[in-house]
Amino acid sequence: MTRAIVTHDLVKVYPRRDRPWWRPAGKRPPAAPAVDGLSLTIPAGQVTGLLGLNGAGKTTTIRMLSTLLRPTTGSATVDGLDLVRDAREIRRRINMIAGGERMVYARLTARENLWYFGQLYDVPRARLTARIDELLALVGLSHAADQRVEQFSKGMRQRLSIARGLINEPSYLLLDEPTLGLDAPIARDLRAVVAELARGGVGVLLTSHYLAEVEQLCAEVHVIAAGRLVARGTPAELTALTERQHTVEITLAAAGASADQAVQALAARTGAQVTADTDEQLRPRYVLRHRHDLAGDLATTVVAAGGAIVRLEVTPPTLEDAILALADGARQPEAVAA
Ligand SMILES: Nc1ncnc2c1ncn2[C@@H]1O[C@H](COP(=O)(O)OP(=O)(O)OP(=O)(O)O)[C@@H](O)[C@H]1O
After folding, report:
1. Example GO molecular function term (predicted)?
2. ipTM of the assembly?
3. How far is ligand 1, taken at its centre, from the CA of residue 59, in Å?
4. For position 338, what pLDDT does the model report?
């Protein structure tokens, strides 16, 4: 059996809360599902991204996979174990870290918190003491181990939440915006830890609004919109899928008929869209849009035609463009196929 979390047609409909208690439920339309038939695979040993705009259903999916929320219909397995029937066993193998949430107790010290959660996860006592020390060192809290959490800064609490999420040495780690609100160096350390865990065989599911983080860590990304899968692929594949274009902007020192002809000829030959105007200093400026980066060709052509380049700037398509386009596409009748 390949080790993975596999979901089949997972659906979650939250009960409607906008009905006053005296009004009968019968006539109202049911609430739209927050997750609507989601089938995905989160393999062991890699980081898999789950992306979508606000309200797409990412947190709901993570809460179902962490057994905190029961699916309305559909099923999921974790290394072959059933999400609902084997929830107790699954809880030992899975953990979740949610950014901005402090899933630790203020009245307890850092060490006491980890001891408490370790017991909850049935970590053997003989292992637990050493594990707590390792984790406190990992998140840079060894010096504050015996301080009460109420005296901690926000960043320290978040770091302790990360240690809590790793206490049971999970086989699968569900990360919901894990670096939200973290200082850049701590966020970078956390990314390094996540990459290392994946290399060691842990299966990680990551949601993040920091797309650079997603591009850096994720082997594969699932994009969801309104609870449904709209696309799947490597970050590079998704970026290419949307056919967003490279934009090359070139500014020349002075107007010249042959440089102008050269730019227009290149655009005609490649099928690039071209617009011509002038900058604030009235120097000729051209903007070319094409699926490929034409900067090299453009520079060579212009120089060969005697033009002097004062500025050349390329804007490649980004994963952010892709997510926006995919989410947009999902609202149109013919959605981008997954
Ligand atoms: N407890 C709840 N009760 C009712 N509806 C909910 C509840 N939690 C979430 N929803 C709804 O379910 C949908 C999906 O929400 P969810 O939080 O899973 O999205 P998300 O992709 O995590 O969004 P975000 O990026 O904003 O965190 C939204 O329409 C949201 O309003």
Report:
1. ATP binding
2. 0.95
3. 7
4. 44
Residues above pLDDT 90, as percent of the chain: 61
User: Which residues have any ligand 1 atom within 6 Å of their CB?
Assistant: 14, 34, 52, 54-60
Q: pLDDT at residue 307 above 60?
A: yes
Nearest CA to ligand 1 atom 2: 14
Tell me the whole-structure pTM to 2 decimals.
0.78
Q: Ligand 1 centroid vs 175 CA: distance in angstroms? A: 16
pLDDT in tens, 34-60: 999 999 999 999 999 999 888 899 999
